[in-house]
Amino acid sequence: MFNLLWLVPAIPYFSFVILAVFGKRMPRSLSGLLGVGSVGISAVISVLIGIQFMSSPPAGDFFMQKLWTWMGVGNFQPEIAFHLDALSLLMMLVVTVVGFLIHLYSWEFMEDDEGFSRFFAYMNLFVGSMLTLVLANNLVLLYLGWEGVGLCSYLLIGFWYKDSENGAAARKAFIVTRVGDTAMAIGLFLLFWNLGTLDIQEILNSASMQWETGSGLALAVGLLLLGGAVGKSAQLPLQVWLPDAMAGPSPVSALIHAATMVTAGVYLIARTHVIFDLAPIAQTVVAIVGAATLLIAGFSALKQHDIKRVLAYSTISQIGYMFLALGVGAYSAAMFHFMTHAFFKALLFLGAGALIMCLHHEHNMFKMGGMRKQLPLTFWTFLIGSGALAAVPLITAGFYSKDLILWRAWTSDSGSPILWLAGIVGAFITAVYTFRMVFVTFFGKAKMQANHRPGARISLPLVVLAVLALIGGFVEMPHTLGHFAPFSKFMHSVLPEVHGAHLSISIELLFQIIAVVITLTGILTAYIFYYRKPELAENMAKSGFGSALGRFFYSGWGFDWFYYKFIVGPFVWIARVNKKDIIDFIYTIMAMICQIFNFVFRQTQNGRIRFYAAGIAFGAVIIVAIVMFT
Amino acid sequence: MTAIPMEHGLLVAAVLFMLGLIGLLVRRNIIFMLLSIEIMLNAAGLAFVVAGARWAQVEGQIMFMFILAMAAAEVAVGLALVLLMYRKFKTLDSDQVSRMRG
């Protein structure tokens, strides 16, 4: 079964090629079947591989499949080879299974779109690239997948390219992530220069042997890799592209900008965790970036009125939690949150997409209202997703993963009460903005009429994801609930256990009670402000300070303004001033000199035979004179 | 009979050559220009003959034979060109046909 591993990325790639070449001439049903079916087959194979991996683990807890050597230049020999271990298996399963559900959803969602086959071509290319990224056994192949998903992200954000705003959003996403990618590429060069290999396992082994803890090189590599992760995962200070990325179709937001691609940064750091263990400063930076991002994005989500932008900021915020977990060394907690987040955030985006589709493409949730009665299935699944996002205790998956992160943020050796405090404040804000969204959209008076109800291919993914968002957390129970933890046990074959003080169960219980109280308070706050007494929120928004703060949060803390003022603006100014390219001037001068000579010599070619004869005679005189007088 | 000094012979050759050159440069009629070239060729031939006589070597006169042959060939080609030129442009003025075409 393991030998079929190569098929998992190969099938979506194959389907991409078919769709890209013949897509226009295919009937819609066939391109839909191909686009959805290819990812479906991949998902089935992944699940079968996963079952075999768990029931009879291969020797050394990993499986390596080498296909061929990509290129050979000296001792630089990257291979096309796949490395399957617990971490990449988890990623592969999430990408294919959630990816399949989202593809199924898109089949109906994009049914009437003129770019139907193009959409599935891009989506399949994305799934293939993402699988290449997570399965790659060396960093060059990983980088290939990394850029591949970036490309697909660009193509799909700008999918409705006829609106130039979408194109601008796509370019913004591409350019901002490129900043991080450049840092990552430099990190790879540094690794290769120092260790002479880019094979991930070899790097991890030789780095821990050759580098000392806290060495400058480990710090530099760690920070550069973090730069790449920050760009891809939309963390501070490169988070500005993700809210604009919502210009793409909703399934794209669900698959790429919530469930899979944006968590590639989390995967990268977890994959190269040895380097971060060797560089405690870099690891602390990861934690601080995560904590700061989750707060900033959370506050920004509070004031958005576009339902997808709320979700975008909440994605940034939740990935902030994952970074926080990575930063305190709780790698398996980060991956756990990645998994549950993939379920509930994909669910939320798909639910929002269904809403938007049924409501004549209306994004503003303050114009919706009362959808609970009109779209009951969407409401219940969305409610479950929101519950998981806000970490409603015991019944939702989000509770278990977020609780684990909060617990580790304080008790881990590299954790601190401040990080925990940031996390708990973030949890409160998350509950507020999530249920603000739920109350505003689904409760109150209906302001719009839904024009149709979602069909089976949209409902099924919603239900399946809702079930996953409920039960997905039961694979990792805290000590207070019997300490049933197969997930972290499974992960520990790859990721180290958390180093931290062992505290008694009663303290852990206290932490959990605080978290639960905070979450419920948040929901209650949203209930009061946005359902029971909306005039309270309006009065607050009208006061001078309140409206200024609201605008500040609405603009995402002014990051866009800042970047425009201090990076984009000056850049455009320089470009405009230097339109005639000062360096090009040197070459222009050379060309001008040549032209002058051309002009002079052209005069001699006048076609008058006597002039030529005179020239010859004159030249002969000069030569004779030279011969005679020297 | 006393031999003519070489300097005199060379002087005549130089004068002839200059006459030919001046003729070439000042005349616009292409036939006169060809004639001037003939004069210049003969001046060169004369210089060879004089030099050959001075050192009593036969090569001077042999060289003149070559020049003669070459001059005949040149005139043959040159006159053919002149004929063509006249047919095409209806003129023998060399300045009138100064436009170059590809």
In short:
By secondary structure, chain A is mainly alpha-helical. Chain A contains 27 helices and 2 strands. Among the domains of chain A are: 279-534, no CATH class; 580-628.
Q: Can you walk through the features of this model?
A:
The complex is a heterodimer of chains A (630) and B (102). Chain A is an all-alpha fold. Chain A is built from 27 helices and two strands. Chain A is globular. Chain B is mainly α. Chain B has three helices and no strands. In chain B, helix 1 packs antiparallel against helix 2. The longest helix of chain B is centred in the last third of the chain and has 31 residues, at 59-89. Chain B starts with 5 loop residues before the first helix and ends in a 13-residue tail after the last helix. Classes of the chains: A mainly alpha (630), B mainly alpha (102). Chains A and B meet through helix 27 of A and helix 1 of B.
Strand order of the largest sheet of chain A: 1-2
Oligomer: heterodimer
The radius of gyration over CA of chain A amounts to 29 Å
Strand element count of chain A: 2
String of helices and strands of chain B: HHH
What are the segments of chain A in which pLDDT stays under 50 over at least 5 consecutive residues?
A: none
Number of strands of chain B: 0
Summarize the biggest pleated sheet of chain B: none
What's the N-to-C terminus distance of chain B? 59 Å
Mean pLDDT of chain B: 88
Backbone CA Rg of chain B: 17 Å
In percent, how much strand structure appears in the residues of chain B? under 5%
Low-confidence stretches of chain B: none
What is the terminal-to-terminal distance of chain A? 93 Å
Largest interface: A-B, 9 and 12 residues
